[in-house]
Amino acid sequence: MGTSRHMDLFLVRHAITDWNKQKRYVGHTDRKVVKSKLSQLANLQKALQKISFDYVYTSDLRRCQETIAYLHIPAHIIKDARLREMNFGDWEGKTYDELKDEKTYQDWLENWEANSIPNGESADAFKSRIDSFLIDLFTLKTEKAPDEKKQILVVTHGGVIRYIVSKYVASSAFWELSVIHGQGVQLSFNFIQQKGEWECSSLLAVPFQGKER
User: Dihedrals φ, ψ of 14, to 5°?
Assistant: First the structure.
């Protein structure tokens, strides 16, 4: 009865890449992290290593895999392509200054959900694949561990984190959430038996060290 089932979901953004430093759009393009910047994740690494994670997931892109390798989390790591960043199509590798005069770009910034990226991923497609991952995640926790508290870590991308938080935290709009590289958030969920669904009960920042330079 009530809220006997509990889950803490830790969402961590990957370490910075060269294109991130240059403020270029990087979605499905498989860039490496800047190795010299990984040490900025040291405080995050220490904080996460204190937690016994039941499940650890990561985007299959290299920047997330290199980040999870640095964090040295003692758990089996599951790669999932559904956790990729949005595919920016023709805008991959370009900067705001290179795109700002294009009408399609201006329209997308005005309403990213209604306007698609040229040769890229629509908002509906982006949301659908992340929702698919979340459905599987919540179904697994409901059916396989009905009365246990679970700790879950997901290493993914900024857009994915923004969408998940905006989906479950009514007060957090998509563009309002700022998640720097190596920073994370913790969403705590309770399963409400009467409703038959999971609800987010809190949003916390995950410790991190330093800022991008």
Answer: -60, 165
> What CA–CA distance (Å, rounded) separates 15 from 84?
14
Kindly list the domain boundaries of the chain, sorted by start residue.
5-87+122-206
Q: Domain 5-87+122-206 maps to which CATH number in 3.10.150.10, 3.30.300.30, 3.40.50.1240, 3.40.50.720?
A: 3.40.50.1240
Backbone torsion region of residue 169, taken as left when φ is above 0, otherwise alpha when ψ lies between -120 and 50, otherwise beta: beta
Q: From the CA atom positions of the chain, what is the Rg in Å?
A: 17
Helix axes 123-144, 158-168, angle to 10 degrees: 70
Per-residue H/E/C for 111-160: CCCCCCCCCCCCHHHHHHHHHHHHHHHHHHHHHHCCCCEEEEEEEECHHH
Please provide the size of the chain in residues. 213
Structure tokens at 146: 């009905």
Mention every residue, 6+ apart, whose C-beta is less than 8 A from residue 67: 12, 14, 15, 33, 38, 41, 58, 155, 182
Give average pLDDT by consecutive 10-residue segment, the chain, 213 residues.
Answer: 73 97 98 95 92 95 97 95 98 98 96 95 97 90 63 97 92 82 92 85 70 39
The whole-model pTM stands at 0.90
